[in-house]
Amino acid sequence: MATLSATLLRNLRLKTRIKNMSNIPENTVYGGPKPQNPEKRVTLAHLRQKHKRGEPITMVTAYDYPSAVHLDSAGIDICLVGDSAAMVVHGHDTTLPITVDEMLVHCRAVSRGATIPLLVGDLPFGSYESSASQAVNTAVRILKEGGMDSIKLEGGSPSRITAAKAIVEAGIAVMGHVGLTPQAISVLGGFRPQGRNVSSAVNVVETALALQEAGCFSVVLECVPPPIAAATTSALGIPTIGIGAGPFCSGQVLVYHDLLGMMQHPHHAKVTPKFCKQYAHVGEVINKALSEYKEEVSSGSFPGPDHSPYKISASEVDSFLKELERRGLTEAASAAAAAAEKMENAKSA
After folding, report:
1. How far apart are the first and last CA of the chain?
2. Across residues 257-275, what is the average pLDDT?
3. Rounded to 5°, angle at Cα 73 from 72 and 76
4. How far is CA 298 from the centre of its chain?
5. List of E strands, 99-258
6. Interhelix angle for 100-113 vs 132-144, to 10°?
7. pLDDT tens-digit series, residues 170-210
8. Which of 18, 74, 129, 245 has its CA 20 to 30 A from that of 255?
9. If you count DSSP H runs as helices and E runs as strands, how many of each does the chain have, helices first?
10. 47-80 confidence digits (pLDDT tens)
């Protein structure tokens, strides 16, 4: 009995010590991966139910922890970690340069911030085209190393359909992407809308059907005329997510930076698509704040007493000055004394 009591006491002390080591709740310290809560996290079942009820699905493309937290707060259904990070975050002119390892960094950051949306990670160019085996291996990394719930791949060529089918058969949910597929700009001749003639329009519908047949749970329709998107949405039994495809899709997606009007740089203005509605002008607020910060630092008004919170008592200052002088650091002692006097005067002003 004494041994049992001693063991319980040690465990209690250890539990208290661990709790005091962190500012996060006790039950999450060293708790390992958090299980998905089907009552909180959006799942494929939730999306199917919304689609069945005819409720529009919301999706936003984001690339980091802060934006993921914002998506959580807004209750967005799906967060896509897109290879468009190559353009929006890394400053490239196309999506082609971004690598799997770079995508994984973005995926991990988003997965730490988003607890509600279904997480979809893009397979970047060059990571799934060679073979079905390569596609499955990359998709596995996106889930295991990136913390995603599913993946997205572009295009509908036979090899892409085969890749999508292989990934689904490996137990990984896949979102398709047809219309303008940015990874194929060398073939498309640039960022050009699709479905503007009969053959192209029929190809959009047939490709979407093929992706559905391969097992995709949803298909993104990018930059196609609204009637083509409406026909595709009607033909499919899975949700379509439109971007520059009009109002007749099952849901919509925009890029976080675009819809917030965050970027004012000429490069971003060059790549911001025509179809994007800006719901805010955050970039202007950011520029104003940075200018004010620069001005206050330059004038010496920041930081003032309100933003210099760490105090030292007058007696400790006196002892510190004497110690500096004892060590021959007379100028340093004078600087410290002047600083202490200035902060005291500012506080009482």
Report:
1. 66
2. 70
3. 55
4. 34
5. 118-122, 150-152, 173-179, 218-222, 240-243, 251-255
6. 40
7. 999 999 999 887 666 555 555 567 667 998 899 999 999 99
8. 129
9. 15, 8
10. 999 999 999 999 999 999 999 999 999 999 999 9
Mark whether 344 is an active-site residue: no
Q: Under 8 Å CB-to-CB from 233, ≥6 apart: which residues? A: 221, 240, 248, 249, 250
Written as one string, the DSSP assignment of 137-167 is: HHHHHHHHTT--SEEE----SHHHHHHHHHH
Cα separations in angstroms, 151 against 74, 79, 91, 172, 307: 22, 11, 23, 8, 45
Distances (CA, A) of 348 to 153, 172, 300, 315, 317: 63, 64, 18, 19, 18
Find the catalytic residue in 145, 154, 213, 222.
222
* β-bridge mates for residue 219, sequence order: 176, 240
- What's the Rg (C-alpha) of the chain? 28
Measured between alpha carbons, how far is 159 from 131 in angstroms, rounded to an integer?
8
The model's pTM is 0.82
Q: How far is the C-alpha of 73 from the C-alpha of 16, rounded, in Å?
A: 32
Q: What distance in Å separates the CA atoms of residue 44 and residue 218, rounded to the nearest whole number?
A: 10
Residue with tokens 């030292």: 312
Two structure tokens written together for 339? 């600083």
Tens of pLDDT along 205-239?
Answer: 999 999 999 999 999 999 999 999 999 999 999 99
